[in-house]
């Protein structure tokens, strides 16, 4: 990171810091209902699998269709699927779940799944993000969030480090597009808008957040751990991540530097002297489940994320980025 600017925000923002930080995520807690979610514990081993240090050593993967045979009930359909691809349910089910955005529990005869040519590889082999991002090779770190594919990718000096799936904002609270930076982080936070906030009662209802990374100070837009529905965009503006991804990003990203900072989660009254890890939020908003594959007649093709040639081509998302851009002459 390069120190570019001393940016002061109005001191009045400080008293609103907690409220802004909790607003969007608190709506998610309040509105949570009977929704089908990804089982995070099922997916950990698949998401964490690494078989190579460099992406150059990760094998290429292609895809095909698998049609569930007729005459089977749902249990038989799943067992037949596992046998067809080697029999190891703990390897097959999580990967198909992630690729198809389908938990397979409702699999029925005649259903079509996308299946890879190889299972059990380094998880980056199945990424919708390009393996290399030439436009970011001079950046130590950059995170890309794609709203159309509902996925994220992280690059170090232009090489893909990790990727995963996300939920962004639904129609009632879209996640803003643009170029942002990681501002502040908290590994654990209790929403100040929780029904039981401030109560000492043992049964007080508290809305707990883990691995919180703020991107938009005024609007309270964060990346954070949360249950991910299989249905696509579902939050009120924040970016939901699976537990392993949220923890990894929390440890991997850098935050801003603020002089004379009065409060951990606010820059009010202080000066931002250095920005945190760059985060691009790109892609069209969708209202239906994401479609990670193009379904051609002969075989499926993974939809690759279209990265901007230069990260700075993405418009700044807040006044912070605009101010730093002006000082840098962009």
From TrEMBL:
Pathway: Cell wall biogenesis; peptidoglycan biosynthesis. One of its GO terms (cellular component) is extracellular region. GO terms for molecular function: peptidoglycan L,D-transpeptidase activity; transferase activity. Residues 141-282 form the L,D-TPase catalytic domain. Residues 1-17 form the signal peptide. SUPFAM superfamilies: L,D-transpeptidase catalytic domain-like (SSF141523). CDD domains: YkuD_like (cd16913). Belongs to the YkuD family. The active site is at residues 224, 238. Keywords: Cell shape, Cell wall biogenesis/degradation, Peptidoglycan synthesis, Signal, Transferase. GO terms for biological process: cell wall organization; peptidoglycan-protein cross-linking; regulation of cell shape. This is L,D-TPase catalytic domain-containing protein. Pfam families: YkuD.
